[in-house]
Amino acid sequence: MRMIARLHLFLMRDEGQTMAEYGVVLAVITVLTVGVFTLLSGGITTAINKVIAVLPK
After folding, report:
1. Which of 15, 21, 29, 32 has its CA 20 to 30 A from that of 39?
2. Residue in 47, 44, 25 with CA at minimum distance from that of residue 36
3. Around 13, how many Cα atoms within 13 Å sit in the side-chain half-sphere?
4. Per-residue pLDDT reduced to its tens digit, 7-34
5. Three-point CA angle 12, 37, 47, nearest 5°
6. How far apart are alpha carbons 26 and 16 in whole angstroms?
7. Which long-range contacts (CB under 8 A, 24 or more apart) does 27-30 make?
8. Could you give the angle at the alpha carbon of 20 between the alpha carbons of 3 and 28, nearest 5°?
9. Residue 26 CA to its chain's centroid (Å)
10. What is the rounded distance in angstroms from the CA atom of residue 8 to the CA atom of residue 23?
11. Which three-class secondary structure string do you get for the chain?
12. With a threshold of 0.70, does the pTM exceed it?
């Protein structure tokens, strides 16, 4: 929660932020999101396959 509050304060300050800074923040968030989905994809696939195995055919 603390990090979200800091990010909010960072984004809301009026000290001459440029579009480049917003672009960098967006790029970092995008890279982290893709990384998390990549890491979770194997676990999600395994869970779905287990459910499919239990379902009657």
Report:
1. 21
2. 44
3. 11
4. 888 777 766 667 778 889 999 999 999 9
5. 140
6. 18
7. none
8. 40
9. 11
10. 15
11. CHHHHHHHHHHHCCCCCCHHHHHHHHHHHHHHHHHHHHHHHHHHHHHHHHHHHHCCC
12. no
| Residue boundaries of the structural domains of the chain | 18-57
Task: Supply 42's token pair.
Answer: 């194997």
Q: pLDDT: is 4 or 49 the higher one?
A: 49
Contact 11, 25 (CB under 8 A): yes
